[in-house]
């Protein structure tokens, strides 16, 4: 399919003007969920475009490297375009792929991984597997975070409109646990009936800032976390009375956040009703989850992801494993039964405390969790006289990827295998370039759809050592 200009003339890059209306065809999807068309090799990004759509768009931004178009009309819809199931899809900024057939989403996510990796390394596309999707890509999230605002006499609890500070009131979400809807309704009623003050980020006056709901698909329990700007919630007894009508709520936590920024949770938690934690599981491993615990929001696909990690690890029971950026220990605990010893390294102390407790909960004794930056702990461990080294290294870093010092140490350690779990293909590709330049070979890459209906994709891949020289190429 070719792009075609509405006025039928051939437009060169320097003749396109802001507010021009042009006819284009979406040829691919961008990493932020926009449709991408081309004119003379210049990319045009269009929110709401679906690959193979023929559209009329208005040019609203021009730069030297790209254009931005506003969708005016769908002339010929793509065969992949579907009717959105979410009534908020046009105003809520949470999902980017509501208009795209689910099977096509999986193809798009594989393409995103391919394109990101090819910018940095040479790789045979056959090594990149099909994206593993969900059998049922709805109602999978075990965590919901809602800002709270006031609009006249109305209370707004929902999500922000894309690229704005405008809060959209949401009474249901196709991604959240079905119990969330009832909990939010009861919570909103409590606010209205008791005139509870809402925090205003501009004036920095008010009490309620966010409501967070953590859900267990194992026990069908829910934890309600009320984020306040003050130490005391004077209406907490009324809140407890109201929420007790929802049988699934077994824990109510007041989280105090006096920070002036947009961070959701503070560091102080007060259990005002019920238990301090709820329990969930990934496969056979159970986890106690506290308000601040990191836990993958899609526990169904996390099992699929960790099964792939286990397959790539192919442990015999004799290996020493380093699990870096280990969080609450979910990967370490999953693979421990097949390893000789697993060391987990994590910077957040509370997460390490959770990991140690989860090891006790599951009676797993061949794991050791260490508090610290992986970039500092691993070099220190390796540089000891004993040279604690690893047969397998697993990294699951934040979106920014791995620190260069850590990658350098991994190369020096001469580990035979490396498994990299990534939530951002671009930073993964950058790190892979360094690893490949220093003797590692990418054996296989598997995208996993952890966040259906969004443009986010998780990736797990296996690397092996081409040689064991340990020579560093900077």
UniProtKB/TrEMBL annotation:
Belongs to the class I-like SAM-binding methyltransferase superfamily. RNA M5U methyltransferase family. It comes from the Bacteria. Coiled coil: none annotated. InterPro entries: MeTrfase_TrmA_AS, NA-bd_OB-fold, SAM-dependent_MTases_sf, TRAM_dom, U5_MeTrfase_fam. The active site is at residue 423. Keywords: Methyltransferase, S-adenosyl-L-methionine, Transferase. Residues 13-73 form the TRAM domain. S-adenosyl-L-methionine binds at residues 296, 325, 346, 396. PANTHER family: RNA M5U METHYLTRANSFERASE, TRNA (URACIL(54)-C(5))-METHYLTRANSFERASE. The keyword Phosphoprotein does not apply. This is 23S rRNA (Uracil(1939)-C(5))-methyltransferase RlmD. GO terms for molecular function: rRNA (uridine-C5-)-methyltransferase activity. GO terms for biological process: rRNA base methylation. PROSITE patterns: SAM_MT_RNA_M5U, TRAM, TRMA_1.
